[in-house]
Amino acid sequence: MVLQAVLPDGDVVKTGSRARKSAAGYDLTRLIIGSEGTLGVITEVTLRLQKLPSHSVVAMCNFQTVKDAADVAIATMHSGIQVSRVELLDEVQIRAINMANGKSLPEVPTLMFEFIGTEAYALEQTLLVQKIAAEHHGSDFVFVEESNAKEELWKIRKEALWAGFAMEPDRQAMITDVCVPLSGLAECISVSKQLLDASPLTCLVIAHAGDGNFHTFILFDPSQEEERREAERLNHLMVHTALSMEGTCTGEHGVGTGKMKYLEKELGMESLRTMKRIKAALDPNNIMNPGKLIPSHVCI
Amino acid sequence: MVLQAVLPDGDVVKTGSRARKSAAGYDLTRLIIGSEGTLGVITEVTLRLQKLPSHSVVAMCNFQTVKDAADVAIATMHSGIQVSRVELLDEVQIRAINMANGKSLPEVPTLMFEFIGTEAYALEQTLLVQKIAAEHHGSDFVFVEESNAKEELWKIRKEALWAGFAMEPDRQAMITDVCVPLSGLAECISVSKQLLDASPLTCLVIAHAGDGNFHTFILFDPSQEEERREAERLNHLMVHTALSMEGTCTGEHGVGTGKMKYLEKELGMESLRTMKRIKAALDPNNIMNPGKLIPSHVCI
């Protein structure tokens, strides 16, 4: 990937060549990606295209507990199977999908998979994972290979966010985004689930389980200060659980202003100081998305 | 991957968490990797381990021209086949291997592959590539699956560097390292090969063809100024060929002092100025590997 970006002083930088790999200088591409607009404005992105796989399989499996489901995701990834997607939905998320779409899926923790490759390989991987699931009390393992059937099955996952919002349409969703080392996912998600189940708020869990990354949608009424505080308390506890397991406060959504307070615990003051020095060197007048990402109390 | 690094002011930074992905702040990991010691000293590296594949196949195939061999590497990568290694050796490199190891391999451009996965998948990929090779005048396609046979066959590639050095033991090797977008590899390698074949110096080509990255070993007598100049001329022309194809002057060996002069053409003065600003912000006294990577004439 290569970027063209306009820096605060008006310099237009190209961050690399079109070669697949390069050792030519500092990696400005990665520095600017994830800087959330604080170092410059990205004006062009060159991506490497991937060939569509010749075949894919979509599979789904039910579990008694989120821990079992997470254990299967972990075992699948650790077995070296090249699963292209593995998503975990808890029973509340499945209930939301049933309500939104008039479905009658079993309201239990569920894993969804996509396997890609040649026809034979995708099927071989599917059957290997079916076996792993059976070893962890998985039930109702189904898989489909036909194009329309795959689209129909994956729709369950694709529409999960909207089904979650629709569950209590008068409420807002606070969306959390912790990510932990894969080996810790089952523990982190189990601890979080106990917390969420004990809350008076409706909470849905959806995880990119293959990455150790999971989101919860905490539905709250923004006009009720008590509900907002409860949502924040849950988010806060989950972040601290993740950080205590050497995870991150944000797997993919970014820092913005909401996660700034966790960065010192996650990365240490020295890292934040280094980030602030880079920010000050490239944007001395602090004109690019000021007040974001780096806490204001960090001194350079 | 996470680093611990000591910065010029003595700050010890941790560049990330142990989560597989994170959006928590600037990517200091990637910034420090490839900075060639100019921003700090890496004192700890945490890597994610990969599971060894359950099966692998090693294959080899001969070609009339380096262009045909490169075309097969390109077609293989573009076909979506998940080849784990694809290496191209030209006829001079094969001659060096024959001389060093008493082998009698056909002295023609040669591709070597490694395929990984389940047993069925690795074999399936192998046969797909055999078909691609046949479409590009490939001959003598062989593959092995047994552990000792794989080791024996891959040894040819593994010992290529030493065989190259041994070819003319009184000479030194200047090793080049350009990398181009994969679609341009066949052209770049063909143009380079004409240049190398026309030189009085012995030149060997070895390519990480799947990445579009190739090395030449140019053997020269360092006591002969004329030979050194000829080696530099060849290197220079290959770098300019690669840059004219939106490639890089260094795919993996780094900049050091030797490649500094190409960075402006590859990345533009604005990118170099940005790098120098980062260097000056983190190392204001220029105590970390001074004089490397960023050309001295770059002004901040």
UniProtKB/TrEMBL annotation, chains A, B:
Residues 1-52 form the FAD-binding PCMH-type domain. Keywords: FAD, Flavoprotein, Oxidoreductase. One of its GO terms (cellular component) is mitochondrion. This is D-lactate dehydrogenase (cytochrome). Belongs to the FAD-binding oxidoreductase/transferase type 4 family. It comes from Triticum turgidum subsp. durum. Gene3D superfamilies: 3.30.465.10, 3.30.70.2740, Vanillyl-alcohol Oxidase, Chain A, domain 4 (1.10.45.10). GO terms for biological process: lactate catabolic process. It is an enzyme of class 1 (oxidoreductase). Its EC number is 1.1.2.4. PROSITE patterns: FAD_PCMH (PS51387).
